[in-house]
Amino acid sequence: MARRSTEWPGKAGYTAGIMPQTSASRRRAKPASASHDAVPSADQTVAKPARAAPRNRRSTLASDHADDLGHGHDHEHAHEPEGSAKPPGVTAKTAARATRASGRKAAALHAHDHDVPDAHDHAHDHHHAHAGEPASGRRKRPGIYLMSPAGVIEDPDCLDRAQANLKTLGYATKVDRTALARDQRFAGTDEQRLAAFQRAVRQPHDIVMAVRGGYGMSRLLHRIDWQAMADSGKRFVGHSDFTAFQLALLAKTGAVSYAGPMARPDFGGKRVDALTGEIFGEVMRGELEILSFEAPDADPVDARGVLWGGNLALVASLVGTPYLPRIRQGILFLEDVGEAPYRVERMLLQLLHAGVLARQKAILLGRFTEYRTTPLDGGFDLPAVVAWIRRETGVPVITGLPFGHVPGKVTLPIGARVGVGTEDGMAYLLLHEH
User: How many separate helices (H) and strands (E) can be counted in the chain?
Assistant: First the structure.
């Protein structure tokens, strides 16, 4: 049963003060049926985004999100372009809540803070736009440049549908001229895809969105002019294989990018998930202050730190390279698709043995979808993985983050300083505060 209260919950003794005592609505939806892919407590519900409007007028959206794809380590959310059918037994009511910023510019999320001990380790001197703010610092009608940095686009019509859906949501779009190129499994040669990045930072639209993931971004990391990417002020958006670009950008320059939707999987169908479109828009406009979601088995935590992470396989692949950010006392979020529980644990162990997990204040786990267990597992599943990581690291773990290779996903600022708190089966991600 839904429940509404007039102020955020707060616990005595909180030290970081993540629970703001502001007037706002809180919704708690009834959990849906258990799901095979949730970690670790089956299907988790997310508090619906209440999009606060002037004079306390509020509206809410609700959407079902489902896991949608398996892969042979091809990190791509491949839900069918039609987007109408949902796999049985894997749906979950998802939502998030938002309160609008008042009397502020769109510069809502600060990229990083070099004067605090949990900032990432690097020194640089450049001027990139803060998260949620156009490079010019002025609020303007957003535009999106669509480019293919990794895997080939096998369904060209998805770009037409994506442009139409984004136009309906209020975005002007332009497609890079080599977005539909092909070289083996890639969206063009390495040179073509590198040239697409160069065009992306020169064109006028302030948002640059990956068309899809797949595989191929890691082949380009040592050839990208990272300072040019950061200095452009563009807001780069994507997930899956695009995690490699986002973490390298953060490691090399400290610039914020966004783990969020992509053109093909999220906007290229006949319909767009309401949660995905709504939250993406609010984050791009700098309006989303607090994201809440159900996390019934979350560890107690109340902390601030740099938010970072993305696809687990890509995060693990960057260990030992100059493209993995050295985040101390950060908030690490992870998701993956098509990876059996033992493979998920092996990648988490790589992060554990490299000292990455021990340096975090909290670990947020999103959706781990479309995997299979075998009789050999003997009951070994993702809850066992999470329990083991909890015991070995002592780092608070929060499950249920509505992010991953699923139709309904939130947009998260990679490299921004955020707050995280848990209470009464709910988790709260503070993206910015007045």
Answer: 8, 17
Active site residue 239: no
Catalytic residue among 335, 339, 345, 423: 335
Which pLDDT score, from 0 to 100, does residue 60 have? 26
Phi, psi torsion values for 347, nearest 5 degrees: -70, -40
Which residue in 65, 71, 120, 405 is the catalytic one? Answer: 405
**Residue (of 304, 227, 267) closest to 411 by Cα position:** 267
For residue 362, the model assigns a pLDDT of 98
Distance, in Å, from the CA atom of 368 to the CA atom of 209, rounded to the nearest integer, reads 23
How confident is the model at residue 140, as a pLDDT?
A: 57
Query: How would CATH label the architecture of 143-284?
Result: 3-Layer(aba) Sandwich (3.40)
Residues 6+ apart with CB under 8 A from 392: 352
- Measure the CA–CA gap between 69 and 405, rounded to whole angstroms: 7
Q: Is 82 a catalytic residue?
A: no
pLDDT value at residue 18: 43
Active site residue 292: no
The answer to whether the peptide bond before residue 261 is cis (omega within 30 degrees of 0) is no
Report pTM: 0.75
Element (H, E) at 362: strand 360-369
Candidate list 148, 218, 240, 292, residue with the active-site label:
240
- Domain residue ranges in the chain: 143-284
Sequential DSSP letters for 298-356: PPP-EEEEEEEEEEHHHHHHTTTSTTS---SSEEEEEEEES--HHHHHHHHHHHHHTTT
Which residues of the chain are under the pLDDT cut of 50?
1-38, 40-138
